[in-house]
Amino acid sequence: MNYHAIQEECYEANRLLPKFGLVDLTFGNVSVFDRDSGVFGIKPSGVEYAELRPADIVLLDLEGRQVSSPLRPSSDTPTHRRLFEAFPGIRAVVHTHSRHAVSFAQAGRGIPCLGTTQADYFYGEVPVTRPLTPEEIAGAYERETGNVIVERFTGLDPQQVPAVLVHGHGPFAWGSSGTKAVETAFALEIVAEMALKALQINPAAEPISPALLAKHFLRKHGPGAYYGQKESAASEAA
Questions:
Q1: Of 19, 50, 144, 194, which has the fewest Cβ atoms less than 10 A away?
Q2: Catalytic residue check, 120
Q3: Does residue 227 have an active-site annotation?
Q4: In a domain, 232, yes or no
């Protein structure tokens, strides 16, 4: 993938955030990583989405060295870098302050899987991290944010649970492309709203059964998945 292609994909994904109602003001960003070149693109800090251009997307390597654009990258860049380092199966990361997901993050509570809508995207609860310590906040804060996410995923598969809530902060989601990562962030906001309303109706609501959870997640993501359309023989041979 050439640098221009990374910028285009990252630009298009960032432009989806306001379209899907996932951001207010400039609170959010998408990054896209090309592992072959070792370079990722990310939204520049504080730039309005309506004013964003592909050439504005800042390109960096995993050491944080900037390789394009005179603009400063998102302040969340070190968190994105840490996730790319730790989760080799992902190509894009999305961070938003979408309101319902942030509500759970601010409450310090994961999003319980109360229904099959969540099970279609997440194999169980969307977890919340521990709070950062004063030392972590005073140090390399954004890098430490990535570290607490990685710590929280000890024993979890980031492919099966492609999102997290950072305690007191907000959600991060990821995927195989910029568009897919934004779709996951959108699904996260939807299920956060559903869970919040379900818990308001019934504070004692319980997660769905492991059998129902497995059925819905694996029919879409498992080795025997049958949701959607099969690829054509030509596509499979390609």
A1: 50
A2: yes
A3: yes
A4: no
Distance of alpha carbon 227 from alpha carbon 188, whole angstroms: 20
Which CATH number does the domain housing residue 89 bear?
Answer: 3.40.225.10
pTM above 0.85, yes or no: yes
Instruction: Please report the pLDDT score of residue 140 as a whole number.
Output: 97
- Other CB atoms within 10 Å distance of the CB of residue 232: 9
Task: Tell me which residue has tokens 């990821």.
Answer: 174
172, 191, 12: which is closest to 96 by C-alpha? 172
Confidence of residue 162 (pLDDT cuts 50, 70, 90): very high
Q: Which ranges constitute the DSSP H helices of the chain?
A: 3-19, 77-86, 99-107, 116-119, 134-138, 141-152, 178-201, 210-221, 233-237
Q: Is residue 109 part of a domain?
A: yes
Question: Exactly one of 120, 121, 141, 157 is catalytic; which is it?
Answer: 120
pLDDT band at 231 (very low <50, low <70, confident <90, very high): low
Q: Residue 2: what residue type?
A: N
Burial class of residue 218 (count of CB atoms within 10 Å of its CB; 0-12, 13-18, 19+): middle
Distance CA 90, CA 191 (A): 22
Residue 188 located in a structural domain: yes
Candidates 61, 141, 157, 227; catalytic one: 227
